Amino acid sequence: MRPLIAGNWKMHGLRADLKEIESIAATAAKLHPDVDILVCPPATLMAEAARIAGGRVAIGGQDCHTEASGHHTGDISAEMLKDVGASAVITGHSERRRDHGESNALVAAKASAARRAGLLAIVCVGETQSQRSEGDALSICGGQIVASVPTGMTEADLAIGYEPLWAIGSGRMPTSHEIIQMHAHIRKCLVLHLGPHGKSVRILYGGSVNPADASGILALPGVGGALVGGASLKAEDFLAILGSAPSVSSRRLDVA
Ligand code: PGA
Predict the structure, then answer these.
(1) Which residues lie with the beta carbon below 6 Å from any ligand 1 atom?
(2) Which long-range contacts (CB under 8 A, 24 or more apart) does 198-203 make?
(3) Active site members
(4) Which of 38, 71, 150, 230 has its CA 20 to 30 A from that of 4?
């Protein structure tokens, strides 16, 4: 299983910032042939980002509508993302769940839409600080997996982003033990939910991933890559994180 390092630009980026994608594309693919590299810029930059990336770096969306087209002012469908060169889309990021009241059922419908359009869906789950303090982190994330991932998905059309809400943009991170424990739990839920395909779906860690900590996180058993927010905005930082990804041959994807 190839690690996936995905950058989520969120609501950042003007055309001048496309030079970062140009820099990433110029070096990333030849430096890290064993790693799947994805950048998810805002929708306004996607077509140009895909052109610049030239297939050396994959381009993804940050959200999609459940339908292919229709009377939905301001929304963008998975088919439209695919049309401008996307190969993936993030669904159910906690900021969309929070800002737009997205439910697990809606996230699942968006993941289905991604599959329909031929995109990889990166379905995000994660607990709040108080849920972790109450000892509910595993059950919350397990519940989100079951309710946000449509049955029938496989490693070809699905990756999971585990992003504790309290770690996003905060500079705080779970301990290695907490990450290993959560990824093992998510793996167990995926196998129960999806059958054998659940064994091969990549589970990415996200939340304050930075160049200094990336190699430690990416080496943890069960971690199949990273979802990177702030540190994906500058090519130098993102390339440093990419450089931390272990080679495929040295990967241990599951806790024995
Ligand atoms: P962060 O964001 O790396 O800035 O914490 C991660 C994310 O929300 O995807």
Answers:
(1) 8, 163, 168-169, 206-209, 227-231
(2) 199/254, 200/1, 200/154, 200/155, 201/153, 201/154, 201/155, 201/158, 201/159, 201/160, 202/1, 202/3, 202/4, 202/155, 202/159, 202/160, 203/159, 203/160, 203/162
(3) 93, 163
(4) 150
Q: Read off the pLDDT of residues 81-124 as tens digits, 9 standing for 90 and up.
A: 999 999 999 999 999 999 999 999 999 999 999 999 999 999 99
**What CA–CA distance (Å, rounded) separates 103 from 96?**
9
The alpha carbon of 71 and the centre of ligand 1 are apart by a number of angstroms equal to 32
Which atom of ligand 1 lies at the shortest distance from residue 210's CA?
Answer: 3
CA distances to 29, 175, 203, 248 from 251, rounded to whole Å, are 19, 20, 13, 5
256, with CB counted inside 10 A (0-12, 13-18, 19+), is exposed
CA–chain centroid gap for 92, Å, is 10
Radius of gyration of the chain (CA): 17
89, 168, 173: which to mutate for ligand 1, most atoms within 8 A of CB?
A: 168
Q: How far is the CA of 169 from the centre of ligand 1 (A)?
A: 5
Cβ pair 223, 194 in contact under 8 A: no
pLDDT band at 248, cuts 50/70/90? low
Q: How far is CA 120 from CA 145, 167, 171, 181, 203, in A?
A: 16, 24, 28, 25, 13
| Secondary structure class of 43 (helix, strand, coil) | helix
- CATH T-level topology, domain 4-247: TIM Barrel (3.20.20)
State how far the alpha carbon of 185 is from the alpha carbons of 123, 141, 188, in Å.
Answer: 16, 9, 5
